[in-house]
Write a structure and sequence with these properties.
CATH topology of the largest domain: Rossmann fold
CATH class of the largest domain: Alpha Beta
Strand content: 15-25%
Largest sheet: 12 strands, mixed
Number of helices: 10
Oligomer: single chain
Distance between the termini: 68 Å
Radius of gyration: 28 Å
Number of domains: 3
CATH superfamily of the largest domain: P-loop containing nucleotide triphosphate hydrolases
């Protein structure tokens, strides 16, 4: 039985050798990108297109056509590839002949079939308008198996905008090359890929996955990662990983956890026999150990979840990638549910309008029966969508139940028993938990919000009235106190995540209003010095940190990073600012903006506890400052958006349980380790 998908819905794939059949009614270009776990495409060699139609396990058509058949062998896809995105584009985009937008042609139809032609999944790309390129489907790995998802993400800017959105360097050049190849009609004499048969050979041999880089780091350039597995973004800034509806955001979604090393491109065979895709000059490192295997499920039952069953070179990396997958699955399944409800509602409205449009059927038993039938269809469609959502939520909840207890301290909530066995780490973890995320349809399921380390953005703990999700904090003083307690909890987490002496914290508290909340940090002696108070204290701390940024920047730009002054503190620096803008003059504000913009690149980070309204007297001068910071709140608030469909996620901070001594125990360990180091 064929599964007819709607946008955002996914479906498991029971076969690995497939065909993707495309029917567009007008000539279109078919292509495919292969990407890592975050969907990023490292370079053009990860793209199959008419000018270069073959990749390991993947083959696309060589020319534009109204119908396409793409061959896929998922067993032959390299292990570094976690997503295969199927793309459609109008030839030449807006500059070519024929239709200039998908809204002017029939909705394209895409089907995934087995080698015998049996249709497994189908998807009709409705709702397109000005778009000239679209991501139709994506095949992706999940818990050791492959799934297919209906995407339907369109781009008015064509292939260039689509490739840019997927993180591909030189996106415009590749898009131009594809359109030129189509225009020239490369290899028009060659037939389109024939349908595969069960006895047909695989189109490609599997490529061996390269190992860790030569420096011994299992993640490659791990410091270049973005802010966590969510691309969760606040409403303060313009950056986003994908062009979607929803609040404008400023988290990266450029956030990029692990960057797999690209697989070497295949070399065309010169003779018979299988193709060897191994780079001749590269020594293959041992592959990462396989993730834990879930016990076999009973027939008809979903597989039992296992903590750490994602890919990765360590349990930490597996858990991180598993959390990413849980977040993405929750976003997608909720999007599918909402889309189904919207469809049911529009269908009901259309049927009711038809009843009212005919004067002969507006009244009487016939009209009443038609209304009842429309409402019944609506209820049935919504009920079906809710059942599918509940099934997915049950699986995600079961997964969360096994993942949460297995998380290391950096990923765990403060109430996790793992903190009671905390020891100061020898190296920095991949990420740090800064709270939980949830959606209204899935309460009480919580997904950890993990930010990559080192931080690439400063943090803004919003103590304004607008941060409160309800009226329980009518007193602004209580909200400010809670915001400062959140800042202390986040600071303690950062201190606990770094090896002894590799993270230094400075505090500016001009009026001393945060003294009570700062008490644990002060008593355990984990600060670089007493909290700075008054205008003089503000000036002193800011000048020292701006000079540090200048010095490190000059050393790096001059290629003399190893020539810093003797005794220079090379640890990461965090500046916690309370009650901004109290105690700040114009010069201090300028220095603070400078630290927010230039500091993260040289290891100086900013955490502000502030109410934006209090700083309104500065006018638009501070707008760039707010946009450069990731806004967090001391109470639940739905100000974050995901980079796919723009859901408004409710953020909840990770607070220390009342009466718990875990914060003091952790800070005591940090202080002891620092004392031994010095």
């Amino acid at each position: 039985m064929t599964a007819e998908l709607v946008r955002g819905q996914n479906h498991p794939l029971s076969q690995v050798r497939l065909e993707i059949r495309i029917s567009a009614g007008t000539p279109v270009v078919a292509a495919a990108t292969t990407g890592d776990e975050q969907g990023r495409v490292p370079d053009a060699e990860w793209v199959a297109h008419p000018g270069a139609p073959a990749l390991p396990g993947l083959e696309v058509s060589r020319q534009a056509a109204a119908d396409h058949r793409l061959a896929v062998d998922l067993d032959a896809v390299p292990t570094a590839v976690h997503r295969v995105s199927v793309l459609l584009a109008l030839p030449g985009g807006r500059s070519g002949g024929g239709p200039q937008r998908f809204g002017a042609v029939a909705a394209p139809f895409v089907a995934v079939t087995g080698l015998d032609g049996t249709e497994l999944v189908s998807y009709t790309l409705t709702g397109l308008d000005s778009e000239t390129a679209v991501v139709a489907l994506e095949l992706y790995r999940r818990q050791g198996a492959w799934k297919v998802r209906a995407v339907g993400q369109g781009y008015a800017g064509g292939l260039a905008e689509l490739f840019t959105d997927q993180g591909l360097p030189q996106a415009h050049q590749l898009a131009s090359g594809i359109h030129e190849a189509v225009t020239r009609g490369l290899a028009r004499a060659l037939p389109a890929p024939r349908p595969r048969t069960p006895d047909a050979d695989r189109p490609h041999a599997a490529a061996s996955a390269p190992g860790p880089d030569q420096t011994g780091s299992p993640h490659g350039a791990s410091g270049a990662g973005a802010s966590g597995p969510y691309g969760a973004q606040d409403d303060a800034g313009p950056h986003s990983a994908r062009t979607t509806s929803g609040p404008d955001t400023s988290q990266p979604a450029g956030p990029t956890p692990v960057s797999p090393v690209p697989v070497e491109p295949a070399t065309p065979p010169t003779g018979g026999g299988p193709v060897d895709y191994t780079h001749p000059g590269r020594q293959s490192a041992a592959p990462p150990p396989p993730p834990p295997t879930a016990p076999p499920a009973a027939p008809g039952q979903p597989a039992q979840p296992v903590a750490g069953d994602a890919t990765g070179w360590s349990m930490e990396e597996r858990l991180y990638n598993q959390v990413w997958g849980m977040f993405e699955d929750l976003a997608r399944t909720t999007a599918a549910y909402r889309s189904a409800v919207d469809f049911a509602d529009s269908r009901r409205e259309k049927e009711l309008d038809q009843v009212l449009s005919d004067p002969r059927s507006r009244g009487g038993d016939q009209a009443e029966a038609a209304r009842d039938a429309a409402h019944l269809k609506y209820a049935q469609l919504v009920d079906q969508a809710r059942q599918a959502l509940d099934r997915d939520l049950a699986q995600l909840t079961a997964e969360a139940d096994v993942v949460e207890p297995a998380l290391p301290p950096a990923f765990a909530r403060w109430d996790n028993p793992v903190w009671h066995a905390y020891r100061v780490p020898m190296e920095i973890p991949m990420a740090l938990r800064m709270g939980d995320l949830r959606l209204p349809e899935s309460d009480p399921l919580r997904i950890p919000m993990l930010l990559r380390l080192p931080l690439e953005r400063g943090l803004w703990i919003d103590c304004g009235r607008t941060a409160a999700a309800d009226d329980s904090f009518a007193d602004a003083h209580d909200l400010r106190r809670l915001a400062m307690e959140c800042a202390v909890a986040h600071t303690a987490r950062l201190l606990a995540a770094y090896p002894a002496g590799e993270f230094t914290v400075h505090v500016i508290d001009p009026a001393g209003s945060g003294a009570q909340a700062l008490g644990p940090l002060v008593r355990h002696g984990v600060l670089a010095g007493p909290p700075a108070v008054g205008a003089a204290g503000v000036k002193d701390v800011l000048e020292r940190l701006t000079q540090r940024v200048d010095l490190v920047q000059m050393a790096v730009r001059g290629g003399a990073a190893d020539s810093l002054p003797p005794g220079f503190d090379t640890s990461e620096q965090l500046l916690v600012v309370n009650d901004f803008p109290h105690g700040f003059d114009d010069r201090a504000v300028t220095q603070l903006r400078y630290l927010a913009d230039e500091g993260p690149a040289v290891g100086v980070h900013l955490m502000m506890v502030a109410d934006r309204e209090d700083a309104s007297g500065y006018g638009p001068l501070l707008d760039p400052l707010w946009r450069s910071l990731l806004r967090l709140t001391p109470v639940p608030d739905d100000h974050l958006a995901d980079p796919w469909v723009g859901h408004a996620w409710t953020y909840e901070p990770t607070l220390v349980p009342p009466g718990s001594q875990v914060l003091h125990q952790v800070l005591s360990q940090v202080a002891t380790a620092r004392a031994k180091r010095w």
